[in-house]
Amino acid sequence: MKIVVFGARGAVGSRIVAEARARGHNVTAVVRSSTQLNGEAQTVKSVAADITDATALPSLLAGFDLAISAVRPPDGQEQDLATLTESLLTAAATAKICLLIVGGAASLLVPDKNLHTVLTAPGFLPDEVVPIARASFAQYELCREERHADWTYLSPPAMLVPGERKGHYRIGADTLLIDGDGNSHISMEDFSVAMLDEAERPSHRQARFTVAY
User: Fold this and answer.
1) Which CATH code is given to the segment(s) 2-212?
2) pLDDT single digits (tens) 102-140
3) Which of 90, 123, 138, 156 could serve as 160's disulfide partner, Cβ 3.0–4.6 Å?
4) What is the 3-state secondary structure (H, E, C) of the chain?
């Protein structure tokens, strides 16, 4: 497939690019500025683009089979996440391709917490991650109301960190996945495996799913 990845230089985005390339897909990495165009040019085409430019994005997406958004605003600009996602959804709808979104865990229900989500459960989140959690909650609400674009929203577990590619994971829907030891985690590498599995064998169109070990 021809896949375009937004936020391709981020921690998750770069791993999605690597996983897609390892599977033999034709990948274009989209970054915020020309200063980020380096390194992977021999194997991955890179382009700089302004995601907020609604007039240019559909042309950029022309000819691709699929788009993946791993966009995450810089610290202090978390509130921009929903706006950036809306721009990508609109462009994907115009280009008639699916947008797979690296989402957040904020809107997932926490087991045995009386219908509290990760964001609303008292004491669940450290203060420093609340801004991006609120932004990702708004991002998911935006997707739920979207009726024109073909989208899929992948929520991570509580902990998403660099690690080993094990090649396996569990799938859930709207509830945080927790293992028998009380952990809710997955490596960024296996999160990327799940994203590419969905890209190749779509089963959650216009829906959210979550993964964890």
Assistant:
1) 3.40.50.720
2) 999 999 999 988 899 999 999 999 999 999 999 999 999
3) 156
4) CEEEEECCCCHHHHHHHHHHHHCCCEEEEEECCHHHCCCHHHCCEEEECCCCCCCCHHHHHCCCCEEEECCCCCCCCHHHHHHHHHHHHHHHHHHCCEEEEECCCCCCECCCCCCCECCCCCCCCCHHHHHHHHHHHHHHHHHHHCCCCEEEEEECCCEEECCCCCCCCEEECCECCCCCCCCCEEEHHHHHHHHHHHHHCCCCCCEEEEEEC
